[in-house]
Amino acid sequence: MQSLDSMPASAPASPVKRTPRARRIGAVSATNTFEIQPLPRWVRPQNPDPGAAAFSAGAGLALFDAILRGRPDGAEPDFAGCLRQRLALRAAESCATLSRLREDAAALRDAEHLSRSGETSPAGRLHRVFRLYASLPARLDAAILRAAEFLGLEETIDARALAEVAITAPDPLAAAARASAAAMKLCAPSTDAEVFAFVVADLVLANRLGWARPVPLLAVALLHPSLRRGAGGKRSRPSDADWPAAVAVAYGFAVAEAHALAVDLARRAQKLLVVAPMLRAKGAGHVVDLLLADDGVTPSAAAGRVKMSDRAARRLFDRLVALGAVRELTGRETFRIYGL
After folding, report:
1. Which pLDDT score, from 0 to 100, does residue 117 have?
2. Spatial distance between the Cα atoms of 88 and 296, rounded to a whole number of angstroms
3. 313: which of 10, 104, 279, 303 fits an S-S bond (Cβ 3.0–4.6 Å)?
């Protein structure tokens, strides 16, 4: 059998790593050249017909692929890390709902960024699964096994068997559908097994499209009302016979949501990069990098990463908010989290 890592996909684009100084120097020129247009209306899913759904998903993925290779040198935009982690938060919120857990996006964000013990809740564990695989290179064997380990499914997973299924698929959407259905069959029926199937689908899709890292997409849209069927509104599952059609519809909605989020983050990242040269605090450039790479950052976490005092970090974030470059995400007076 062939390893997933040896699938005949195009090699993932290697992101060009730039220093904070290089980013600040190139900020103005970058903001003048990198502008994302809203998703055209004709791409948005409007018809449940399988052929129309596959067309919408394919067109949306092609335009989203252009965003991920949007810099003049073909590298990912500065905000790609934040985009992935914010989608990971939305995917985790959807899966928490599927698991009948009560945490919403705000609670999941708090648990991830404010927990000092390292332990987390069952919903927080789902969030960490999505955060983990969204940060890993699209080397599927390793990424699949790490996700399975997080969900306690590693003993039942055969990554080579998943590769054998995915490699015979004629296109990326079919590969995602077939591999996720195969992943579900390898596990005992459970919500964790479904979550793992969603992760496998995104990993295989990213590998076939040559993305540097996976993007949490499938789980983001699985609760969309259009994916329910019959009088009882039954939700599609990877074990269903019509799962490939459901995957196409779900990716159509998910990529539309991801595209809209990218448009918003691109605008916010531009503003942050424009004001970055005005920041005089030592380590400010590294804090800008943290904000571009994650969904949220706390002053204490930034202070620890760039070796500045907590007070200096809080003053820096206050300065960034005053300049309109970042937002405070919680609405609280204490235990604040900042982000694009």
Report:
1. 66
2. 12
3. 303
